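Let us work through a complete example step by step.
Step 1: write down the sequence.
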Amino acid sequence: MQAELKHGARESREMMLGSDAIAHGVRLCRPAVISAYPITPQTHIIETLSEMVDTGELQSQFIKVESEMSAIAACLGAVSAGSRSFTATSSHGLAMMHEILHWFSGARMPLVMVNANRALGAPWNIWCDQSDSMSQRDVGWLQLYCETAQEALDSIILAYWLSEQIMLPVMVMIDGFILSHTMEQLLLPSQREVDAFLPPYRPAIFLDPENPKTFCAAAAADNFYQLKKAIAATMETAETLLAEGYALFAGRFGRSYGHVEPYCCDDAEVVFCCAGALSGTVRVAVDQLRQEGHRIGLVKLRLFRPFPGAALIRLLAGTKRLVVLNRSVSFGAAGTIAQELRAAFYREDCRPQIHDVIISLGGKEVFPATIREIALRAAELSPTESIWIG
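Step 2: predict the structure and record it as tokens.
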């Protein structure tokens, strides 16, 4: 359902679904083309956008397609022709897009896509876990994970700002149902302020019959290697540029973000690390444990690709135990985030004991009491084996 709003020249305080918040974030960025195919739990996002286009609230071409493969392929065509574009998906829809995800990054095309995290079958399951997006970590897209609807809305604006400068696509994640289907009070930026922050997309090179160019052509081995090397180099600079974006965003909108966001970490003996809406649950548990005198902290992982290893090392140097709460697992290895953290700290002499906890898959509920029990028994956790809760 689309929230009924009057868009004024100033920021407004609104109550809306997470999906609607994302749709309004997209509207504020003025995409010329939206191509999408419905899949639970992201469908609300494109339903709201289709209503906006139908009523004239958003001037955009809305393309209804027959599959997620077509949705992302249509976006690739639109961006190649010089249009800012948007799509959203989830779970098996994202898996179906896999081939074109590589084509997007390989062709250096900017795009913002929202993925509502949902489990991958089998068995059939529509609830939240992060295996769908984290299994796409090697496709050359940046990945941002959001804790709240406000953060998701703001991340859409930031993602377009970044994507169109580095010419790489950005995926913005929300935990399915937990954020997409719950109401939240948030601040809706004005169109004027977003226009001032995010300039129109005017690429130097695009498909133009009057000025023909070749896109996505074949490349010999040496050229192919150099093009992939260039993507790796851009990824290395993306953290710095995104940090500049955070500062500009904070100056204009008054809300601050970071690649990683610490909470009560200064004197913490045990620090939890997780991504997405689970951070809110852990924050509640940390507050309760602090009131009881336990030195517990939280690091929210907001940027997953590129992985902000250096920032985490600076933040967690001296931490005794790091408990990683994963909503994604690489079977036969470890939780996905735990793998990344162990690799980041491998060369560090002063590194925390990293405990790999598979906390939730397929929507398995996590309560503050669960986090509390893990914190109080952290010394008993294996430093090498994955721990499954329940």
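Step 3: interpret the result. The CA atoms of residues 37 and 68 lie 6 Å apart.
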